[in-house]
Task: structure prediction
Amino acid sequence: MSTRTAERAAPPAARRRSPLGFLRGRSLHIYTWLVIAWLLLPICVMILFGFNDTQSRYNTKWQGFTFKWYGELFAIDELTTALINSLLIALLTMLIAGTLGTLIGLALGRYRFRGAGPLNLVMFAAIACAEIVMGASLLSMFVTLSAPLGFWTILIAHVMFSVSFVAVTVRARVLTLDPALEEAARDLGAGPLTTFRLVTFPMIFPGVMAGSLLAFALSIDDFVITNFTAGGTVTFPLWIWGSTRVGTPPQVNVMGTLIFAVGVLLAIGLRLIARRRAA
Result:
C-alpha cells in the first residue's frame, strides 16, 4: 500500500494536527501579526487621544470622549504655522527630489557611463549615513557659506537626503523595463521625447510616485537634520518637541491622525492604480 493510500485510509483523528504542530506551522504568521500590532499600538493611542476631553495641555490621561478638538484644529497659531511649514517643505521636497531622483535613477538604470559606480556609492552612502552626521555636515556647509538658516536651508537639506531614495526606487523600476518597447516606439517614428512621454514614463511612473511619496514622508517626518538647519523656522516635529516641556495639546494628536489617514489613503490609491495597470 502506498503512502498516499495509507494517509487516505487513516482515521480522521490520525490526520488531525496536534495544537503544537498547528502553532509550529503558524508561528511565522503569528509573529508577523504581533510585530504589526506592536507597530500600530502608538498610532492607535495617538488617534484615541485625539478624542480625549482633557481640560489641560497635558493630554496624557483619558477624561472622556469628544470631537471638539477637530473643530478647534487650528486654534493654536504657532502649531498651525509649524504644520504649514512642514507641509510646504515636504511638497517642495517631493517635487524637486522627485524630478532630480527620477533623472538620476533613469541614468543609472539605463546607461553605462564613467562615474556610474561612484555615483551609486554616493547614493547608498547618503541612505546609510546617520542623520546626525548629515545634519552636522550640512550645518557646517551653510555656516561656511554664510547662508542664513531658515526655510530654504531646511528645503535644501531635505532635498539632499531624500533624492537618493527616489533615485534608488526609480533605478530599480528602470532595470525591470523591456527595451524592446522603446525600440518599437522609435521604429514607428516616435522621437526621443515622444518615446519617453508615451512609453518610458508611464512604465516607470509607479516607481516615480513611490519615490516621490517616500521623499514627502521623510521630509514631513524629519527632526534631526531639520533641527540642525532650521534656524528660526519651526516645523511640525520641532514644535512638538518644544511643546513637551509645557504639555502637548490634543490638536497635535488630531493633526497626526489626519496626516496618517492621508498617507493610508494614498497608499491604497497607489495600490489600486498598480493593480488596474497590471490587469
